[in-house]
Amino acid sequence: MEKSIIAAKEPAVLTLDSGTYYWCRCGRSKSQPFCDGSHKGTGITPVEFSITEKQEVALCQCKQTGTQPYCDGTHETL
Question: Going along the chain, which residue ranges are E strands?
Fold first, then answer.
C-alpha cells in the first residue's frame, strides 16, 4: 500500500447538507477533501461518512488525523 499525501496543513471547514460523503484518505484527489477516485491502484480507500442534518464540519486534509474524516489538529505538528 502506498502512503497518503498531505493535501494541506489545515482543515477544510465546510457546511454540509445531510447525506453520505466520501472523504479522500490518500491525499491525491483534485476534489479535496472528497474522493474523486484518484486512489485507484494505491491500496488506500476513501472513508464513507454520513451527516444527518446540515452542519459545519472541519475535515482533515493532512490525512494524519486520528478521528477520520474530522480534523483533530494533527496538522499543527507536521
Answer: 12-16, 19-23, 47-51, 55-59
